[in-house]
Amino acid sequence: MATILNIETSTEVCSVALTSEGQVLDHSENYEGQTHATMLSQYVQQALQYARTREVSIDAIAVSIGPGSYTGLRIGLSEAKGLAFGLSVPLIGVNTLQLLTVSAMFNHFIDEDKLLYVPMIDARRMEVYTAAYTPALEALVEPQAMILDEHSFESLLDEGYTLVAVGNGSDKAREVLKHDHMRFIAGIKPVALEMMALAEKAFREQQFIDVAYSTPLYLKEFQATKPKNPILNL
Question: How far apart are CA 188 and CA 166, in angstroms?
């Protein structure tokens, strides 16, 4: 029986869940945004306290590795690495786009023959991080940063696939993708308790990431902006 501490910080949601063999033992979530630096450690300590008081051994740490918010991903992965090292347990990386897909499949039944899930994470303006997955999580469109327009996913739609768009970037798609075979599910957010199935599968298959050298899945390079009114101009 594997007990896994799951961490998710890829978007505005900060969440932690302690899970074991299909059961959620403890979980904490905050949807207010910009709280990861302050709330994550508290949620982790709460989960660790739950495990200690019930004499539950943690077998692995799972963390959502992106794509998503640069800052959120760095905070989550840093916390997860520290825990994995300190507890001497393996580290599991969960793709956030796959996490959104699994959340949609588990929470919404859609009866279509040629069905693809298209998770979308907001990347500002009309850009999203996205992919296209079959219900078996086979990627027909690999994870990438995409600027949405009326031609996005056109080839798949022309082939008769029904595309189900989810995630906080899907509102942008709703504005430009008016195809009859587009479906939209609102309210799907990546949260730690929904990581359970993917994390447990990775644990069973011994699919771990390096505690020292693993990095988030950014999909595009970080672009820092200069302050508007710098005090010093050196």
Answer: 6
